[in-house]
């Protein structure tokens, strides 16, 4: 970047819905660049659409940003509170001759548009009101005729260097004289945005590339207001795995949905950061927030659309889940275990060391908090349910498995110590004596103890369950296998 001014970046969502992943990615990129360069990250709520803006949406934006850890440096700006400045900036351009009054009605414009369509021509405002004599304009204003303010687009072309896409040019002849103020003196989007960005001293506008077509109009407004231009960076869209623009048909798109699905904020930040940006060279995909701040640069912004892959997000979450300190993981899992009806917070508090050991073992094979809860069931309930797939795979020959499981129980019951090394040695000797591989002992035992084919190490499982519950589980499995064998 060549601009010598301190970076001031902003995120400017409309409170007409929840904070979606595309907006969150935009906010994150602005925030990361501000933090890396020692600049400021500003938040503006563009609430001028009173019909669609809601307090719930505004609150969801705040909550989503806070959950992601994206703090802002100054008071939140509400665009609707800046109406008088918007009008004053429009009046300034009117006085300078950059803007003119247009008295054409909506019906008149619609009729001309229809005529153009019949001629198979693109409709473009013909500037007829710009050709009205000053005296006629004054007469109509005095008579109270409604009017809008239109920007007089000059000849030539509008060009800027985009930090993502490089040099972009628009022929001004392709831009019609656009409205900046409605007949009720409220601002159109492009005018309100420029007025606010100037007032907030924004030096870099980073947003989605669906705004590229707005940029030449906004540059013209900057120039008409005599304000320095910010730099622009337009981020490619985020697509679903089908290559189409991300939408609700791809599943959850609101940040809050992923929070409730058990995604960690640091995992979501890490995942979003790699949608449209790369630190370059060989890099570790799993990065902390501090690492992202240190590595982030506008040079790594990508031109091509990125793909939001929920499976990749779950994988990323699993990586962060495995690295999270147990003290931070515990308060996230406890409410979920209680909600599942497995235990109480009081019980976990009185078995604290045991609980932390369980969490440390279960998270290794988990991608979501829900995965931990699902695996945790066998350690809290008295009677377990055997997964049909586990039974079909590991107990498919009940008459063969049953005597091995009985021998396993008898071997474990005779152990002098209930420790993994002692258990393992005894069961491997049993397998050798029976002339089978260790898997023929351990895998059916895993199903007997957990009902599942996947669990932490079988000896860790037995330590967590304890001698009494382990032996009782195996006995219950023997009863089940007897039923299967007789059937």
What does this protein look like?
The chain has helices at residues 21-37, 55-68, 83-95, 106-118, 134-142, 189-199, 215-224, 255-260, 265-273, 289-295, 310-323, 326-339, 345-350, 352-362, 369-376, 388-394, 398-413, 420-434, 438-450, 458-486, and strands at residues 8-11, 40-45, 77-78, 99-102, 148-151, 157-162, 166-171, 179-181, 204-208, 231-235, 238-239, 306-307. The protein is mainly α. The chain folds into four domains: 1-75 and 236-323, Rossmann fold; 83-188, Glutamyl-tRNA Synthetase, domain 3, CATH 3.90.800.10; 324-364, no CATH class; 388-486, Arc Repressor Mutant, subunit A (Orthogonal Bundle), CATH 1.10.10. It has a three-stranded parallel beta sheet. A three-stranded antiparallel beta sheet has the order 4-5-8. Strands 6-7 form a two-stranded antiparallel sheet. Helix 2 links the parallel strand 2 (40-45) and strand 3. The protein starts with 7 loop residues before the first strand and ends with a helix.
Essential attributes:
20 helices; 4 domains; Rossmann fold; three-stranded antiparallel sheet; Glutamyl-tRNA Synthetase, domain 3; 487 residues; elongated; mainly alpha
* CATH topology call of the largest domain: Rossmann fold
- Strand order of the biggest β-sheet: 1-2-3
CATH superfamily of the largest domain, please? HUPs
What is the residue-averaged pLDDT? 94
Share of residues in strands: 5-15%
Question: What level of helicity do the residues show?
Answer: 40-55%
Low-confidence stretches: none
Number of domains: 4
Radius of gyration in whole Å, from Cα?
A: 32 Å
N-C termini distance: 76 Å
CATH level 1 class label of the largest domain? Alpha Beta
């Amino acid at each position: 970047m060549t601009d010598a001014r301190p970076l001031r970046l902003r995120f400017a969502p409309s409170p007409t819905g929840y904070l979606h992943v595309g907006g969150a990615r935009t906010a994150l990129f602005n925030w990361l660049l501000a933090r890396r360069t020692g600049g400021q990250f500003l938040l503006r709520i563009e609430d001028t659409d009173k019909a669609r803006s809601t307090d719930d949406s505004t609150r969801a934006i705040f909550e989503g940003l806070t959950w992601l850890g994206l703090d802002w440096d100054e008071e939140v700006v509400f665009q609707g509170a800046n109406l008088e400045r918007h009008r004053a900036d429009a009046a300034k351009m009117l006085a300078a001759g950059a803007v003119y009054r247009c008295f054409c009605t909506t019906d008149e414009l619609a009729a001309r548009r229809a005529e153009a369509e019949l001629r198979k021509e693109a409709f473009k405002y013909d500037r007829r009101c710009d050709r009205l004599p000053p005296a006629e304009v004054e007469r109509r204003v005095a008579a109270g005729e409604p009017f809008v303010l239109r920007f007089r687009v000059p000849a030539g072309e509008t060009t800027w260097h985009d930090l993502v896409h490089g040099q972009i040019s628009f022929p001004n002849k392709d831009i019609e004289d656009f409205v900046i103020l409605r007949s009720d003196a409220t601002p159109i989007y492009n005018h309100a945005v420029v007025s606010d960005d100037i007032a907030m001293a924004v030096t870099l506008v980073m947003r989605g590339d669906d705004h590229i077509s707005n940029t030449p109009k906004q540059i013209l407004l900057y120039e008409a207001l005599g304000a320095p231009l910010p730099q622009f960076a337009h981020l490619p869209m985020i697509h679903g795995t089908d290559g189409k623009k991300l939408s609700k048909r791809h599943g959850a798109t609101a940040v809050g949905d992923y929070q409730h699905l058990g995604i960690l904020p640091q995992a979501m930040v890490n995942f979003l950061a790699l949608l449209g940006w790369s630190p370059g060279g060989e890099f570790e995909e799993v990065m902390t927030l501090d690492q992202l701040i240190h590595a982030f640069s506008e040079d790594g912004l990508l031109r091509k659309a990125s793909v939001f892959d929920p499976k990749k997000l779950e994988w990323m979450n699993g990586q962060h889940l495995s690295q999270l300190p147990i003290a931070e993981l515990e308060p996230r899992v406890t409410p979920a275990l209680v909600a599942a009806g497995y235990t109480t917070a009081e019980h976990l508090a009185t078995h604290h060391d045991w609980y932390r050991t369980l969490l440390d073992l279960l998270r290794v094979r988990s991608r979501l908090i829900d995965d931990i809860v699902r695996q945790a069931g066998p350690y809290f309930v008295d009677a377990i349910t055997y997964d049909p797939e586990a039974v079909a795979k590991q107990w498919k020959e009940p008459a063969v498995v049953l005597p091995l499981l009985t021998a396993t129980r008898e071997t474990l019951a005779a152990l002098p110590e209930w420790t993994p090394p002692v258990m393992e040695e005894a069961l491997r000797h049993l397998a050798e004596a029976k002339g089978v591989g260790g898997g023929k002992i351990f895998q059916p035992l895993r199903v007997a103890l957990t009902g599942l084919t996947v669990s932490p190490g079988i000896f860790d499982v037995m330590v967590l369950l304890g001698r009494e519950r382990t032996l009782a589980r195996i006995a219950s499995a023997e009863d089940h296998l007897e039923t299967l064998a007789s059937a």
